[in-house]
Amino acid sequence: MAAQAYDRYLVNAQVMFLAERLRYMQNIKHTGEYPDGCGGVFFELHEGVSLASWGEDIKVHIFPYNDMQTVVEILSKCALPTQIIDWGKNSQNIQGILTPLFYGLAVQKMM
C-alpha cells in the first residue's frame, strides 16, 4: 500500500465558499470535480513528480455539516502504489492546500 496522509476538519464556512476557493488554487493541478449527491463536492488533485517523490494523488471531500459549517476531508497518497515512504511529502501537500483554503476562517480539527 502506498504511503498516505489524511486529515478531517470542521470549518465555519459554507460548502460553495470553500469549493470556489479550491477551484481557483493555482499551486496544484486539478484532475476532477464531482458532486457527492448529498450537497457536497469531491475534488481530485495531483502533485507532480519531484526529487522527493513520484507524485501524489490528493482527494478532497467537502460536505455540509449544518447550514453554516462544512466538513473538509483530505487524503494525499503516493501515486506510485509501491512507494512505502513519502518523506513527509503527503503531509506537506495537505498543509499546502489547507493553509490558503482555510485562510481567515475558524477551523477545528476532527478526529
List the helices and strands and how they pair.
Blueprint: E1 4-11, H1 15-23, E2 29-35, E3 41-47, E4 56-64, E5 70-78, H2 89-101, E6 107-109
Antiparallel strand pairs: 1-5, 1-6, 2-3, 3-4, 4-5
> How many strands, what sense, and barrel or not for the largest sheet?
6 strands, antiparallel
- H/E order of the elements? EHEEEEHE
Overall form? elongated
β-sheet strand percentage: 35-45%
Oligomeric state, counting identical vs distinct chains: single chain
Q: How confident is the prediction overall: mean pLDDT? A: 91
Number of separate strands: 6
Q: In DSSP terms, counting alpha (H) and pi (I) runs of 4 or more, how many helices?
A: 2
Query: Main sheet: which strands, in order across?
Result: 2-3-4-5-1-6
Low-confidence stretches: none
Distance between the termini: 23 Å
Give the structural class: alpha+beta
Rg from Cα: 14 Å
Helix content: 10-25%
If you had to describe this structure to a student in words, what would you say it looks like?
With 111 residues, the chain is an alpha+beta fold. Helix content is 20%, strand content 39%. Strands 2-3-4-5-1-6 form a 6-stranded antiparallel β-sheet. A hairpin with a 5-residue loop joins strand 4 (56-64) and strand 5 (70-78). The model has no long low-confidence stretch (mean pLDDT 91).
Which keywords apply here?
single chain; 111 residues; alpha+beta; six-stranded antiparallel beta sheet; 2 helices; 6 strands; 20% helix
